[in-house]
Amino acid sequence: MYRFLLTPRWLGILALTLAASAVMVLLGNWQLSRYQERAAINERIDTTAKVPPVPVGQVLPVPAGTAGALGAAPPADAAWTRVTVTGRYDSTNVILIRSRTVESQVGFEVLTPLLLPDGSAVLVDRGWIPPAPGGSALARPEVPTAPSGEVTVVGRVHLSESKPDAVVRRDGRIETRRIALPALARELPYPIYHGYLLLDEQTPAADPIFSAIPIRHENDWQNGGYVVQWWLFAVLALVGFGWAARREARGGGPGSDGRDRDRAGQDRLGHDRLGQDRLGQDRLDESAPAPQP
Length: 293
Description:
Number of strands: 9
Structural class: alpha/beta
Mean pLDDT: 84
Number of helices: 4
Shape: elongated
Helix content: 25-40%
Low-confidence stretches: 255-262
Distance between the termini: 69 Å
Oligomer: single chain
């Protein structure tokens, strides 16, 4: 019954089905890896929120070198770790990160270097502030002065952002759109850590004008849904091939419906013609003169 599967046509259909299914499985596997990565980040965010902070030097490699140097890149799992560090803010090198959104409002994040006793610095994201009143979303705000003297900061490690933007210096302040640490390091007169801190707590307290940067969990369930979707498509492709092959084996293949319809039409046409011939013969018999006795 299934010898037709060895024909070139059906072998081609089978090859295309298997190739499509394999691609769908690979796409599902890729989405699975993305799901696992994002789930691990979410777990780390939740876990680190419950443990006491550790000294920053235990998480980020201590930078060494001259002005503009950047410390060694930390491992990926250093992100979101709560750390503590004590130093003095350098208010002469405030960094404004423009076009940042918090609660659907566009404004600025303010980074300020925290100078440490060894001469290096770690950038601290002190929070978000709105643009200057009455101006556009890019109107430079009035940044509160950082506390003078010794400051203790507790914050979460955040890794450098990708796709660096141009860094400019205006009126003694550095401006950019992305927190790309290699580009920012070149603008500072001391080595900095390869990672910055999202401020959680500060002693003395931070200015209330700052809004804390929200820590958003990754949308891992979206990737999980894509995994199920791609794998289901792969199964449906194979099931569809099996259904088509079974239908062909039972005589219901792609060409059989047409042949059956043609055959049925010819039968109906034959019956109609036979009926017309018989009707015509009956009429001829009725019109013929009756035989004389």
